[in-house]
Design a protein that fits this description.
Strands 7-8-9-10-11-1-2-3-4-5-6-12 form a twelve-stranded mixed sheet. Helix content is 17%, strand content 38%. The protein contains six helices and twelve strands. The protein is α+β, with helices and mostly antiparallel strands. The chain has one domain: outer membrane lipoprotein receptor (LolB), chain A (Clam).
Length: 247
């Protein structure tokens, strides 16, 4: 059986940023996610011009809702060609998130006041996680990125992530990060973000795992502060087997 954290990683991304990752899908969604298996000194980080990140973070503070399409690509050493799926995501502050992978949805990640749910519609089953359970899952502290927004301010961002590299070209900024969480480092090798500092738009989010696999989300049709039907964050579990995801 695939472990809960593997399913979470496959869906989020995360997330999220959720996000931001994700939520984390912050991915805080989007994130969530990850780590680079190399070390960087504080002096190297201080030498980087992090003003684009600060501008990006400032823009996030004004975002209350976000919706987007995305293309998720997964690469594995054992496969010659990567696997690609389309999806859709919605985020609403504070604390609501929905990611759907596939059309019709093959997998859904849903975060509400009641908890965090991983849903498999075809099998009519779901797992429910509390916030504490997510924190205790191996490597799941990195999933703070799936929160909305990614961080409350730049100071919190610095406490959560170490910036390894940053390059800007035109209206785009590419950043490589090292989450400071030790559990996340055991799973991940690298996390990369591409965003537009002036608007706060997240363009791409990629995770590279220590086993050589990669998970990449490219975001399209991004809409901020639009009206989202509250029903998006409701789900009818009638006929579903819902189990506690603590195991």
């Amino acid at each position: 059986m695939i472990k809960s954290e593997a399913r979470l990683t496959g869906i989020l991304v995360a997330t999220v940023g959720g996000p931001w990752l994700c939520s984390g899908m912050i991915l805080r969604f989007f994130l969530v996610l990850v780590a680079v298996g190399m070390a960087v000194s504080d002096c190297a980080a201080e030498a980087l011009d992090v003003r684009p990140i600060k501008r990006w973070m400032a823009q996030q503070g004004a975002v209350r809702t976000l919706s987007a399409d995305f293309v998720q690509t997964r690469s594995f050493r054992a496969l010659k060609s990567p696997l690609a799926n389309k999806g859709r995501m919605w985020l609403s502050a504070p604390g609501k998130m929905r990611w759907e992978l596939g059309d019709p949805a093959k997998a859904i990640a849903l975060k509400t006041e009641e908890g965090f749910f991983l849903i498999e519609p075809a099998k009519r089953r779901a797992e429910k996680f509390s916030g504490d359970q997510l924190e205790k899952q191996s490597g799941m502290r990195g999933m703070a990125m799936m929160e909305f927004p990614m961080a409350r301010d730049f100071a919190e961002f610095e406490r959560t992530f170490e910036v390894l590299s940053l390059t800007s070209a035109g209206d785009r900024c590419d950043v490589a990060l090292l989450p400071r969480d030790q559990q996340a480092r055991k799973m991940m090798k690298r996390i990369a973000l591409a965003f537009r500092p002036a608007t706060g738009e997240l363009i791409e989010f990629e995770m590279e795992f220590k086993d050589g696999s990669k998970l990449r989300n490219e975001f399209l049709n991004v809409q901020t502060n639009g009206k989202i039907d509250p029903a998006v964050f409701d789900y009818d579990f009638t006929g579903y087997k819902v189990r506690d995801g603590k195991n």
